[in-house]
Amino acid sequence: MKKVHVFNAGPCLLPQVAIDNTIEALKDFSGTGMSVLCISHRTKEWDAVMDECRALWKELLHIPDTHEVVFLGGGASLQFLYVAMNFLEKKAAAAYLDTGVWASKALKEAKGIGDAYAIASSKDKNYTYIPKGFEIPADLDYLHITTNNTIYGTEIHEDLDVPCPLIADMSSDIMSRPVDVSKYDLIYGGAQKNVGPAGVIFAIVRKDALGRVSRYIPTMLDYRTHIDKLSMFNTPPVFAIFVMKETLKWLKSIGGVEAMYEINKKKAALLYDEIDRNSMFIGTAVKEDRSLMNVCFVMAPGKEALQDEFFAFAKERGMVGIKGHRSVGGFRASLYNACSIEDVQALVDCMKEFEALKK
Ligand SMILES: *Cc1c(COP(=O)(O)O)cnc(C)c1O
């Protein structure tokens, strides 16, 4: 197979052992003589997969008993609606921290349900920083944040202390760093950025925060339905859950989220140091808010004309998926969990070589 270094923003690179185990299960799932694609989800073999997957989530993120984790379809984009349906009461209000496209899409869905507004925004500078120091009213239904802004490469690095319930879209930094789950009423995201393939979302819900809104919540959009039925109210996305379970098994085997965080910090530092040193490139996000997961950079002033040449140069050396999102331009290298330090080193070497060639 061709040797490449994958920096795709999502769906992401997955650990090879998870892919290998999945290939086995595609042929023969758990010794059943059947492919995992054909297994009934109402079997003890499948129950074991669900139980293991749930247990891995709880263990790796230290999820307290006050919370439950569910796995559903529909993408993180449908969670934007779930959030408002389950937590937004019409008379009070929900505040959204507008840190990018995903945050504003989440806000749009909430506005369709009730009284929601942007409490602060970094749109004025094309979302290159995280707004800070804004007042948070204590009587909010909730504050919604997007902890990692996949498109702009900014990240909220700590769990915020806020006077109201806190809800976070962690699609692109879940399991990349330790999180104090007890501080959140809800953490949700799509699996395809860091913990699995496309097709499944995770939602970690504080159980006693549910049931407080007066509206009718459609059965499928009510977190209680899925908590009560352990994510099996209807047919779960079995294949995506299987691969997610294998991905989390790998994460546990390398020492869990805490060990992963140390590696992720090293990977990000390696690439950011090169961007800051290399005369060809500059980073786009302000330094203190730089994401450990999505590293965004552009050609340095005066070097813009070399952009296409660098794309071709990097492609030749096996770099995949380093094109920036169209709203930012330039380059984006996503350093999700399965991306290795060797992958990052290869990109850094490629940037060094390019500089030497063009200087
Ligand atoms: C990718 C992404 C989404 C959207 O996820 P889908 O599963 O495609 O709906 C939402 N939020 C963030 C932060 C993302 O990175």
Could you characterize the architecture of this molecule?
This protein has 359 residues and is of the alpha/beta class. The chain folds into two domains: 16-253, Aspartate Aminotransferase, domain 2, CATH 3.40.640; 256-358, Aspartate Aminotransferase, domain 1 (Alpha-Beta Complex), CATH 3.90.1150.10. 35% of the residues lie in helices and 16% in strands. It contains nine helices and 14 strands. It has helices at 16-27, 44-61, 75-87, 101-111, 223-228, 238-253, 256-277, 307-316, 341-358; strands at residues 5-6, 67-72, 94-98, 116-121, 142-146, 148-149, 154-155, 166-169, 186-190, 201-206, 281-283, 294-299, 319-320, 331-334. The strands form four sheets. A seven-stranded mixed beta sheet has the order 2-10-9-8-5-3-4, sandwiched between helices. It has a three-stranded antiparallel beta sheet with strand order 11-12-14, covered by helices on one side. Strand 3, helix 4 and strand 4 (116-121) form a beta-alpha-beta unit. The chain is globular. It starts with a strand and ends with a helix. The model has no long low-confidence stretch (mean pLDDT 97). The chain binds pyridoxal-5'-phosphate (PLP). Pyridoxal-5'-phosphate (PLP) is lined by residues 10, 75-77, 102, 146, 150, 169, 171-172, 190, 193. The site of pyridoxal-5'-phosphate has 12 residues, from helix 3.
What are the defining features of this structure?
single chain, alpha/beta, 2 domains, seven-stranded mixed sheet, three-stranded antiparallel sheet, 9 helices, 14 strands, about 15% strand, globular, binds pyridoxal-5'-phosphate
